Amino acid sequence: LFTKYEQRLKTCLEESLMSTDVAAATGAIEDCFLDFWDECCFPQTAQIHYFDQNTAVPRVSRLEQFLMQPCPKAAGIVQCEIERVKKMSYNSSGTGVKGRFF
Questions:
Q1: Three-state SS sequence of the chain
Q2: Cys-Cys crosslink for 46: which of 38, 69, 87, 99, Cβ 3.0 to 4.6 Å?
Q3: In degrees rounded to 5, what are phi and psi of residue 54?
Q4: Half-sphere exposure of residue 72, counting CA atoms within 13 Å on the CB side?
Q5: Contact call for residues 31 and 5 (beta carbons, < 8 A)
């Protein structure tokens, strides 16, 4: 397990040294560490990040996986906010509503 993540981290670090996009390189390194912690130490709360040590937030890089699976009980209470945005269309009815998840 450690060898797998050590190789992945080395690859991410080498790519970050050659990359001009610092944000993407930093995100890849952070994802490597978070994946390690998810698999090694905290499998019950995999794909969840605690930004203030209390609030469970799905990892943005794994948002689709998070939304397609039930929330683990170890996550505790997970709050969801859906913002509805009115979208004008050129159909005969004239209006439509589009949801945005965050």
A1: CHHHHHHHHHHHHHHHHHCCCHHHHHHHHHHHHHHHHHHHCCHHHCCEEECCCCCEEECHHHHHHHHHCCCCHHHCCCCCCEEEEEEECCCCCCEEEEEEEC
A2: 38
A3: -130, -40
A4: 16
A5: no
Residue 7: the pLDDT is 93
Closest alpha carbon to 74 in 40, 34, 39, 46? 46
Interatomic CA distance for residues 95 and 88, integer angstroms: 5
Distance (Å) of CA 52 to CA 3, 8, 49, 57, 64:
30, 27, 9, 10, 22
